[in-house]
Amino acid sequence: MDVFDKLKILTDAAKYDVACTSSGVDKKAARGGMGNATACGICHSFAADGRCISLLKVLMTNACTYDCQYCVNRRSNDTPRAAFTPRELAELTINFYRRNYIEGLFLSSGIQRNPDYTCEQMIEALRILREEYRFSGYIHAKAIPGADSLLISRLGMLADRMSVNIELPSQSSLKLLAPDKTKHSILTPMGYIQNRIRENTTDLVRYRHAPRFAPAGQSTQMIVGATPETDFQILNLTEGLYKKYKLKRVFFSAYMPVSDSALLPALDTKPPLLREHRLYQADWLLRFYGFSANELLDAGHQSFNPYIDPKCNWALNHMEHFPMEVNRAPYTELLRIPGIGVTSAKRIVTARRTGPLNFDGLKKLGVVLKRAQYFITCGGRTADGLKITQDAALRSLMSDTAFGMYRQGLPSGSEPEQLSLFEQPRLTQEDVRKCLTGQI
Predict the structure, then answer these.
(1) Does pTM top 0.70 for this prediction?
(2) Rounded mean pLDDT of 366-394?
(3) C-alpha distance from residue 36 to each of 22, 39, 130, 142, 324 (Å)
(4) What gap in Å lies between CA 100 and CA 341, rounded to an integer?
């Protein structure tokens, strides 16, 4: 099997892992080296200056000794298998980088032979990149649960960011669908990585040229929709992971049916993409808006309303806090008003020092009045002709179609779409072959 065939198999197998994000680290190559990492770099997206930032997202191998029922690479699945050698992967990454196809690498792997061997293969690929090619670009490496801590340490010294996928939100689901994994095997390396990252802030590593362990932090991923856990359970686990392990991000991946196992949703089940989206919005509220998981959901309301975002849903369920007077409400309370974000809340606090604000002034500050007007007053007055009721606010926050579906109790959903290195307008097969053979 040539390198191109391996690339096609292993990039396609990697698309189910969503835990890649902005690099979170600024790093320039030393003299004679190549590549750099910028904090704003984002996988498969665009930077603020309009540049397309991309990572080569690939597996070291999709041959796996584990039999996780939700995974397309499980050992019982009849699928083409491939594996890169460390040098093949390093050379492929450098060739793509030199031709401006990518700006970094996202590397994960199936468990080949055992966790230690798999981790050693990944380490050797990254060593070649860092030491032989002197590549200073962004590298995200997946830690292998069960691997020796010394290997995790070495991997973290070569990568910019690390992640350990928790995969399923509960121990019972993990035991049922991934019998080769345990909660302990996942959380142990997560805790080790967190401790090593914390050491970066001590006096021992404050010297300018001292190497740092995973300077861009760590993240994790949870699969949504494969098991019966509710949004309430998932969000509480997310909050706990942020507090205990100081994660940079928790990613949510809508389950795409890849198995006909009776333990999983049927193959014709649509991935819960809207539910995934609501969880991401709630995650944003946890990290930047001062909400707690128990505020957004509770034992009596364990799922988000799919038709409106979690912040609006919270506000509609807590109308006793509204309307708020924007000229007096503290910053932390302004953040809870639908239509007011972090930036506009800061602008309000600054602007009202020079005089009272009205609705026209709020609009100029970037407040989305279509939402906010149902939850605020300016100088004790509501917007002209507006009647503030929960039903009126709900109707305003939804499209007419969504409001009708909501009233009828109809489900909402959308079709899945996955990115692939080989889909247009990305690289063509001929482009990749020319790259690998040095023709371009």
Answers:
(1) yes
(2) 86
(3) 14, 10, 12, 20, 47
(4) 36
